[in-house]
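Researcher: Batch entry, complex prediction.
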Amino acid sequence: MEMRLEKSITVRKSKLHKDQTTIKLYVFSALVVVLLLIAVFASQLVPYDPYQQDLGKALLAPDSNHLLGTDRYGRDLLSRVIMGAQSTIFSSLLLVAIISVIGTSIGVFCGYKGGKIDSIIMRISDVFLAFPGMVFAIAVAGVLGGGIMNAVVALACISWPKFARLARGQVLSIKNMPYISAAKLSGSKPAKIIFKHLLPNMMGPILVTATLDIGTMMMELAGLSFLGLGAMPPIAEWGSMMSNGRSMLQTSPWVILAPGCAIFITVMLFNLLGDTVRDVLDPQTKK
Amino acid sequence: MSAVLEVRNLKKAYQKGKTEIVAVDGISFEINKGECLGLVGESGCGKSTTAKLITRLTAADEGEIFLNGKEITHVNTKELRDVYKDIQMIFQMPLDSFNPRIRLGESVMESMINQGMKRRQAKARAQECLANCGLSSDFADRYPHQVSGGECQRASIARAIANKPSLLICDEATSALDVTIQSQILKLLGQFQQKMGMSCLLICHDLALVQEVCDRVMVMFNGRIVEEGTPDEIIMNPREEYTKRLIDSVL
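Model: Structure tokens for the complex:
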């Protein structure tokens, strides 16, 4: 009798917990979708032309006409923040997608294959990890020239080893689990073992690292933009907008706060979504 | 009687730093059709390595393995998949032997789908196998962490017998289970062995258990087979010093 009582309590707990994570998932994905929609339809949403300069309206404080104020060329900051969402979010997402896919593939290949190829590729990744990343990215971006796409390529060149290392570690720890042996004994081909048994069990940490990296990558892209190696000046991009407003922090703080808050909200949303996705993906935490 | 499995002079050594550890040191034995062979010995004596060598999960350094008269030591990966129709294994940790993200039914179906069976047929067959192992059909939709260790091991047996193998290797299949479940699992294995004429290699460290189910026992020590005979012979009249110690150590 007592055992039954205990069992019914655990069942109830698991239901509550599951519902909560699902609700969180819906809320955060809805918010991220809203953010993405704003980015996609940015040119339809902007109240003013984000590139229209009007020096007569330079550095206006936020009011009912310009909700977030104007910058030193009199451009409406709300319009620029909305427009900047497009380049900032999409370039960061593209960058994280590139490095996580390439890094994970290399890591899985090395971890699963082992042997000499593994050692060689891992030594190469050691070289990348040992070199100061930003300096190398500046060098690559300098060779490729300015432009946001070149900045993405430059950062992708230096950031893949992190994911390769992570994925390789995951593969090495999972590779010797009995269920992989069981899959081999079931006659599964290596591709099936990798995609059905390995990847789903190692995606959690990679997904979380990837979402946490969106913020870091946004900042690094902004850094390159600041140096003139990323987004070119007239283009609205949160990072470069912040760099532009840096000198006016004391006189007109809204110029730096508007894109800063945008980055803060975006990064936090992606992080929360990443954490929730991990909770949902991992059936063991549903207990 | 024809031998289902014949192992000749099998050797495997692991490199650990500069020293070489010989895990399996030139063992030879055979398993006849329908026979249950026990392999006992302390931990680290090479029992599990032997199982991995026979299933080709680890490559052997030397020696040959014949399955139903066919040499399988050097077959390529494609032919190896055919070999796995005839040879299956049950692992020690029931929970670890199932992918935590895949439902039990799906795991049981995997081997049949790999052999080219249609999904619906495979699903029906998987449920039949689970039912034969005493699990109702709703277990097929559960994840490994939602069932108990004993139930998981039953599912593991269902997966192993799905393709009707001629040889089943149980690598400490009951060690992680408590005593009552142990006997249930062994009974289940015995049933299948009789019904399907399957041979069985039972790797174990529990002599009493071996005595109950095995037709023949081999005692392994330091990578070698030191003694072989029927369970009663070995337990009543152990010839080797190590076997005596092993028997004395039973609680």
